[in-house]
Amino acid sequence: MKIEIITTPNALLAETGFGSIIACNSVLAATQDAGYQCKITICDSLTDLEAVVLRKPELVILAVKSLPEEENKEICLSEYFSEHSLNFSGSTMDSMRFDTDKVLAKTHLKSRGISTANFFISVPGEHRRENHLPISFPLFLKPANIANGDGIDDDSLVRSYPAFESKVASLYEQFGFPVLVEEYVEGPAFTVCIIKTASGELLISPLEIIPHLSFTGPRVLGEEIKQDQARGLKKVEDDTMKKQLVKLAVDVFIELDIRDFGRIDFVTNKNGHCFFMEADLVPGMNKESSYFTKAFEIEHELSYESVCQLIVEEGLSRVPKISPLNNPILADKTPGRQAGLNRNL
User: Fold this and answer.
1) pTM for the complete prediction?
2) What confidence tens digit (pLDDT) does each residue in 42-70 have?
3) Closest Cα to residue 133, out of 117, 144, 143, 120?
4) Which of 55, 56, 58, 48 is nearest to 6 (CA)?
5) Is the dihedral of CA 105, 266, 279, 312 positive or negative?
6) Which fold has domain 189-338?
7) Class of domain 2-90
8) Which of the four CATH numbers 3.30.720, 2.60.40, 3.30.1490, 3.40.50 does domain 118-183 have?
9) In this predicted model, what pLDDT tens digit does every residue of 205-241 receive, in sequence order?
10) Rounded to the nearest 5°, which phi and psi values hold at 50?
11) Is the separation of the CB atoms in 310 and 203 below 8 Å?
């Protein structure tokens, strides 16, 4: 079985993805330890992608979503490999749109009856007075098309029009995208990580996120916190909340047609009602700190290597005439036993 992990030469990897080359090396080591022939391929151009297609690996593991080109254009990797009939990990292009466009995801899910915090988008000069704002203060501002907590800091929570105007201007200047403005929901934040196994079951890990207090008081889950993800994660002890999170996460997984795996974030209000925030379909894979891998360790006692093997086995299950490995990892840890839910997709 030939497997290639596809990444880009961008050392900072500002776009959503597994993380730096260190994270890719960790996935590589776990895959090789499972007995697979695997290598990392750093793609810098369309020619590099064409070479991957010619080699015809049984699976390409997408560590990034896209390959940047000139003139601010990008090649969507899931679209490219789909067009060339090459098996790839993760969701298809249609679902990846919901990852890269937070507004699209929230709008789609709202139309399906899944609660999201009230929101609108804004650019500098669009809302010239406070009475032009569709939602009352306090508001939470972040880039509409940027992930990993980029652009989120203590100034993201705004309580006045001057603060709103200033933050919209700074985010637009920094990222060049419209700004997502959300009703601020002051309550606990949760992440639910899901892997679809080769047998078709969902392994589900809901966790509460406990970010540090910001300088202004309220908890803010921004870039610095997400770079230190291992701290501030804990099991959801309340059974009612846990069941609500699992049901909502599965509903989102289905409605967004997510494939293989994903991380879905929620926030709750003081009454315990959950609101969808965003979906990360190429979650971080840093061995020491990423939410995604740590969630399965905390909830199901699965090692980092086991999580990587589950991802590989699910991807390889799509290869004709190839059965996934018999995996003892999942013994007594299926979603039906762990979370009271056994859903096949």
Assistant:
1) 0.86
2) 999 999 999 999 999 999 999 999 998 87
3) 120
4) 48
5) negative
6) D-amino Acid Aminotransferase; Chain A, domain 1 (3.30.470)
7) alpha beta
8) 3.30.1490
9) 999 998 755 544 455 554 444 444 455 799 999 999 9
10) -60, -40
11) yes
